Amino acid sequence: MAEFRKPYVKRGGGRDAWRSVLFTSADIPAGRDSSAEGFAAFLLRYQQKSAALVRYAQGGSGSAGTDGTVGDTPVSGPGGLHVYERSVAAAASAPGQERMFWDWLKNGYDILVFDYSPLQENALLIDLGDFADKVLLTVLAERSNKHVVHNALGILTQYGLTPDGLILAGRRLHIPQSIYRNL
Length: 183
What we know:
The protein is of the alpha/beta class. The protein is 32% helix and 21% strand. Strands 3-4-2-5-1-6-7 form a 7-stranded mixed β-sheet, with helices on both faces. 32% of the residues are buried.
């Protein structure tokens, strides 16, 4: 969560106000990207904002998460974060119901964080892009090559979305042994 301690989170009634952000990834396998969860936990803990994380998972219409929870009941996340596990297939098949669910969440939380990783081409992406105020693309350091990133950017552009930012995840900053000796 240290990577989110210094961002400038601008919220208010002005032109740049936002209440929902979509996180997606170029090629990070489902469940391996914690950027969205870390950002939501940061908002909850350090900004004192009520935040909900809506995590979309591959799967059939009846199940989303590994614990079998789908729908309107949140799973407790780190620091009391409310995490809603949703199925991509179920959400894409009933876009009207999904939009009502998002509106319901927006009335109950200051900020909604959507985790739509890995990036998938379907109707849900269009709806999420229309609903979200910001779109962030996550790439994995030392794994994502430029062709994969260009492909992800092309998919987002094809669906009418422009990323507002790029997150470099998994970057390891190696600390020299000499620094450890001086601690």
